[in-house]
Amino acid sequence: MPHRPRSSGGHSCLTILLAGGQGSRLHELTGTDCKPAVPFGPTGRIVDFVVSNAAMVGLGPMVVATQYRPVSLTAHLMRNWASAFADGLILRDGHCVAGKQGYRGTADAVAANMAEIDRTAPEHVLILAGDHVFDMDFGRMMADHIASGAAATVAATPVPVSEARGFGILDADAQGQVTRFVEKPANPPAMFGDPRRSLASMGIYAFRWAWLRAALRAELQRPGTRFDFGHDILPRALRDRELRLHTLPDRPDGRTGYWRDVGTLDAYRKAQLDFVAATPPIPLPQMPGGGIAGLNTVMSGFAAQAAAVHGTVLMPGARIARGAHAKHAILGPGVVLPAGIVIGEDPNEDRRWFRRTDAGTVLVTVEMLKRREDAGTMTRAISGYRN
């Protein structure tokens, strides 16, 4: 029996989660896991934020498009989230669906599953990115999308102009119709009336399925397509004057709604530290079984007992010996920081053994520590031989 999509205000809707990204800017953290599966706390993963938001709305079933190193991700989703979707999770690995080449882009991940989507016969589809930290009411977005009558709606949030080069940037009129879209511009345009901020695409889209289906078929035949929503599908909707804007609402205190692209080591570390505050910026994902995808970030009480630690995040299984010192670091899974080590104070020493960003975040992995220890052992052996 085919899965049937749930309704949104009387309109059937299918949710598609794009969760196949490698996340190369996270470097060694994605050596064995895809970006959505990177830990965010002792039991949670980055993907938990978007799945939690989708589960609360109940627009299932959810199609999950995976590709790069999907094993831990699919195991985590099936173990912790499948029960939250009455119609289940439909796992669609790119190398199984699209052959050796896999999905060629975000839009191809949907195009390659067109037959599966057609079997559910949805009126609308909600496309979600599985690698951001945020809180959003997808039900409200779908209601606004359907009420507008537009073929496509893109979710956006204000970001500082200085940080906007890495995003798709939008502009819209007073009625919410998008008038301009530029993918990762060198000189990002500012929001109307706010020269300090730009409107960035959140990688979340709602489409009338009939329109998107036709657009995907056209892109499959178009020479030079990147099979990408930002580069190909949204510009097509803009040309058709069918692209609407849904802005992430401000928080109750008036601040911009919380959304973080945790695609870099600096952003990943800072996002975890945001949740150490007495009042976290958004609720942590609540797993169906009652567990909380909490954080394993170093807290002041523990730090006082174990080490001098400032702005450091411990990933699952990481520990710090008494007398160690770490500043602005990410201690990878299983890292045991030995007594006497100092990280985050000397950039040259950090870079000699570990990965340090220009902004000062230092990533430490088990393998990096092992190389450092082996080099120290060899140095001591040579010194002993000479003596």
UniProtKB/TrEMBL annotation:
Family: Belongs to the bacterial/plant glucose-1-phosphate adenylyltransferase family.
SUPFAM superfamilies: Nucleotide-diphospho-sugar transferases
Chain coiled-coil ranges: none
Protein name: Uncharacterized protein
Nucleotidyl transferase domain boundaries: 15-274
GO biological process: glycogen biosynthetic process
Organism: Pacificitalea manganoxidans
PANTHER family named among the record's database cross-references: GLUCOSE-1-PHOSPHATE ADENYLYLTRANSFERASE (PTHR43523:SF2), GLUCOSE-1-PHOSPHATE ADENYLYLTRANSFERASE-RELATED (PTHR43523)
Keyword Nucleotidyltransferase: yes
Keywords: Glycogen biosynthesis, Nucleotidyltransferase, Transferase
Residues annotated as domain Glucose-1-phosphate adenylyltransferase/Bifunctional protein GlmU-like C-terminal hexapeptide: 304-364
Molecular function terms from GO: glucose-1-phosphate adenylyltransferase activity
UniProt cross-references to InterPro entries, sorted A to Z: ADP-Glc_PPase, GlmU/GlgC-like_hexapep, NTP_transferase_dom, Nucleotide-diphossugar_trans
